[in-house]
Amino acid sequence: MKYLNGLLYIEWDEALEAGIKSCTLKLANHRKSRSWEFKDDPIDNRRVLIGWDKLKSEYKALIRARWGEPEQWSVLAPIRQRVQYNVEAERFYLDYGDKTLSKELATKYAKGASFLDMMRREAEDKRALKEIHRCNMEEFYARCAAVIKQDKIDALPSSYRRLAVAKDSALKRYIREGYPSLIDWRIGNKNGAKVKDEVSEAALKELISHPNQHDWVFVANQYNYWATKNGRKSITPQTVCLWAKKCKAEILMERKGNEAMSRELLPQVKGMRPTAPLLLMECDDNHLDLQFIDFEAKSHEGRYIKRYKMVAVIDSFNDLILGAAIAEPGEEITIELVMAAWVDAMYYLRSLTGEWVLPHQIIADNFGIGTLEPFYKSIAQFERTPVGSKERGYIERFFGTRFWKNCLSAGANNYTGHNLTAKNRGVNMDFLKQEIKNRPAVGEEAKKQLCTFIYRLRHAPQSKDVGLTISKQDEWLKAWNEMPAERKRIISDEQWLEIFGIRHKKTLRITNRGAEPQINNRQYSFDLAPDDLVKHIGKEVTIFYDPLDMSRVLLADGDKVRIRAKEARLTPRAAADHTGESVARMWKRLHAKEDIVEKADRAKTARKSVLEKYAVDAEALLTSGDYYPKEVRQRSEQIALTELTDSVGQEFNILSQI
Asked: Do 503 and 445 fall within a single domain?
């Protein structure tokens, strides 16, 4: 219902709800009947308004029966316009009492809650009463009761007093108790209504949320013990279960912890695998489900249950294992082991691509994060994983896949099973016990089995789709070759050494013998190119070396010095020890010395020619006093003369005393 230019119009939906047939309205609008007036809504031209004045008496009677007298419409219209449907209330009623309310009842109570929300807002806003409704509080409540009656809001009383004025009115009860106040007491679990005050509800929730995770029978007994002493009604275990479901969001974190909260309640971001290789790499550790024999173990029982721990680096594109490092039985994962797994991954990638390549992003757990975070960030984009997060990537799920288990257990008599359940151990325990003395031993036998396991992960056929029998390595290589060159992060040897090379703890100075550090109690000697040696001799540098190839070394001072060095090859002193190669190398070295001397001579000649050209005598500058300003020379001569006079006077005094 709207007033436009002083004329009253009925909305299309209001006419239909009053009982006017849809076909009647559509036909009249289509024929542009003179006994009807149709007008587009100026606010929304998709809506059609119907003029009140031209309506026949029979249609006006239908509208009056449904919506009341037209004089009241302009007064009640602001109230209807200020009502905003409460979606949260609808959700509460849909989930109430383990979903005991139907959709129809939930909508009914949600409309009532929405209307009471409007009443509470308008009653608190004096400006709205004065400027919008133009009435006092009592008149406002009376108009609200009229709207409830006309619009048939069944969840609320249409009586002015029972709606807002009485001591236990619907509005006051709603402000005090919230959404449950509108629900009929005959609906749902009656026992739930016994916990209806703030103290009772808080006490029950606190018992339910206890970290010891007590069962509902125990919680009900403890609550009833408190309720009896404090004048409250007793409840049943079914009521506790009802409240536990209703307030799950409040109590789950305290009852079961952060991990359960994240897994069961917090919205999960559904991920999509990377679309190309090396867009995302992951690193994590895994306790391999293989047991070995250690004949040197002190305990007889512990001799047969030695297990290895492995740090794995995978490409999330298709779970191809790129690198691995394995700790000895009984040893824990270390930072050095993690870095070794990354070095192994880099060498494997080079064997596939022929280049040193880096990923775009890294995901890892928080082990040793204080030390490893700068290392990860030097490789690629890296952000710390939230504590307790189990959905950070794909590597943990890969450890539990059937493909991983098959590659681990194939041909193994020491496989111990995985993901134990009440019905399934994952392995025949009788066979496992029977083969206990035939297990591979720690050391070479264990390493051979573990290397075979990693080889299977890379080369074993995988069946993703029907008829697809391609290995992860082949699948990865195919995608890499199709990848645009601009997306490949290729680095040089020097960059590789700065990121993955081991930094020697002690610095050293470059001498004419090159660089000669002592690493792991072994003396090394590294040669520099002649030009680099002459340029940087005497500078203090740090050595970065490749633990798998000691011939690859980088010397750097953190500023401007970045020199590649090679492991020195000694020249035989005895002529009999010389070979053709050693002789050629010796002459090359001697020629390099001659080149350095010749460069020095050429530089000297060039300097002298420049000085001769401009008539500058360097020798005269060193010996001539005219080089100094007149004032400085005079001052120096005066000081020298004074010192000479003083010394002669002292000698004369001494001689006179004698």
From this structure: no
